[in-house]
Amino acid sequence: GGLLLLCLVVGTVRGQPCTAGGQLPVIKPVTATMALPNSNTDPSGFLNGAVVEGPAGIQVTSSGQRDAITVMVGALVNITIDAEWTGAEHGLENITLFTYEEPGIPNGGVMSHLTCMGNGMRCNPVRRTFAWTPAPTQHGRVHTMCFVAHPVTPSLAACASAWRCVDVTVHAPVLEWVGATPVDNLLVHSAVGCKLTVCPEVEDTSRVYGVDVNPVPGTMPPGAQFDVACEARGQSASLHPLWPALAYPMRSTLGCKRCMHWEAVRGMETQNFTACFTAADRDGLEQRTTCLRIYVPKCKYCVQEGDTLHSINKKYRLNSNWLQLWNSNGIGEIGGHPLSPATAFPDPDGISNGNSLINLGPSYEMKAGESLNAMAASFRTTIRKLLDVNPDIVDAADVHEGTLLCVMPCTDGLV
Predict the structure, then answer these.
(1) Is 80 helix (H, G, I), strand (E, B) or coil?
(2) Is there a contact between 85 and 26 (Cβ–Cβ < 8 Å)?
(3) Chain-wide mean pLDDT for the chain?
């Protein structure tokens, strides 16, 4: 420590030889290379006879006595620090190159021993190399190293160079939901038979890291299927702007889009489900989560390709007269929920267009003291027909105040 403090007193000691011409050792702007994750680090550029990507130079931005570079997690980074003392007076002097104890070097990095680059192994100029593969815990931070060069000869101890620092930024991903990703906590209605497809899509807006989307375990609706891989996309045509000096092209990364596919079945009416999705970069540095709330409305049915009013009547055992079902859907719905509006069918033969929503009958919310028997009598239907059209109700005794019933009035005499 004492030696370094002495070296900071640059050329101020009277009578020292380095003050005559005012020339001191100089640390040059650093150079740096980076080998992308999973690339070959063989400097020859060959692996089993094939040309492969290896370390390549990256841009160094210099300002005064500071250099700055940007790297990524998992990439092998090599930084070369050179120092030299020139001039007729001191060109033959040996020098050395130290790293300041504060701030030191980043955890996991290795600083090489001094390499003498002069003729006959003279230590002037000199070089040290720093090798480092940033870990995931080091992303999003600026790691600084500082250096000083000074003569080996004790009498020239005051002739230290000016300090030079290197700021190494480990780039962090910037994740963003894009495309048709639902807004977090969005509520949607998906009736029985409707094919619900939800496609969360994420990008690293900095275009550095690969990304993926996955369902949060335990949140998918029963029977939901999730795409096993991201939607296929071609390679980006743009080179990455953070490393324009790479000897080989680093392409900007692309986002990931994966879809959930689900269809509500009978018995799920009035139930609520939550589907949550997590987006993360493939290095596990950052993540984002968004959730979708799904409600299965009652008395609604999504028309399937090939359905007719008669086949729907038969499927739900409503009655033998399809005209009553048509009467519930022949005109625009009155008082329907905006998230699950029924489709009007002026033509009874026009329902077989797939995934349109129809009413199975009106809805009624039970009041205190009412029973299923009373409801059957009031709407001139039967308990069996009420249970058929309300498959979420297993037993007539399960109903209570606030229970929502789907009813088919005037069907007590129909079989």
Answers:
(1) strand
(2) yes
(3) 81
**How many Cβ atoms from other residues are within 10 Å of residue 146's Cβ?**
20
* Close Cβ partners of 70 (under 8 Å, ≥ 6 residues apart): 58, 168, 169, 171, 242, 243
- CB neighbour class for 28 (10 Å; exposed up to 12, middle 13-18, buried from 19): middle
Residue type, 313: N
* Whole-angstrom distance, CA of residue 58 vs CA of residue 56: 6
Which is higher by pLDDT, 345 or 158? 158
| Phi, psi (degrees; rounded to nearest 5) at 158 | -75, -5
* pLDDT tens per residue, range 226-246: 999 998 776 555 556 566 555
List CB contacts of 198: < 8 A, sequence separation 6 or more: 182, 259, 260, 262, 275, 292
Per-residue CA distances from 147 to 2, 102, 129 (Å): 15, 10, 12
The model's pLDDT over 52-106, given as tens digits with 9 standing for 90+, comes to 456 778 889 999 999 999 998 988 899 999 999 987 777 788 999 999 999 999 9
Cβ 135 vs Cβ 146: under 8 Å:
no
Q: State the pTM of this model.
A: 0.74
Per the CB < 8 A criterion, the answer to whether 191 and 268 are in contact is: no
Among 277, 345, 359, 354, which residue's Cα sits nearest to residue 313? Answer: 359
Task: Tokens for 5, please give them.
Answer: 């403090």
Q: Which of 337, 309, 316, 330 is nearest to 404 (CA)?
A: 337
Spell out the residues 6+ positions from residue 264 whose beta carbon is closer than 8 angstroms to its own: 190, 191, 192, 193, 194, 196, 221, 296
What distance in Å separates the CA atoms of residue 403 and residue 269, rounded to the nearest whole number? Answer: 12
Write out the two tokens for 225: 């299927």
Distance between CA 332 and CA 334 in Å, rounded? 6
Question: Quick check: 302 and 197 in contact, CB under 8 A?
Answer: no
Coil, strand or helix: which one is 232?
Answer: coil
Bond preceding residue 106 cis, omega within 30 of 0:
no
Q: Which amino acid is at 310?
A: H
DSSP 322-384: HHHHHHTTSSPPSS--TTSPPPP-SSGGG-TTSS-EEESS-EEE--TT--HHHHHHHTT--HH
- Taking the C-alpha atoms of residue 195 and residue 175, their distance in angstroms, rounded to an integer, is 29
DSSP labels for 24-50?
A: --EEPPPEEEEE-TTS---TT-EETTE
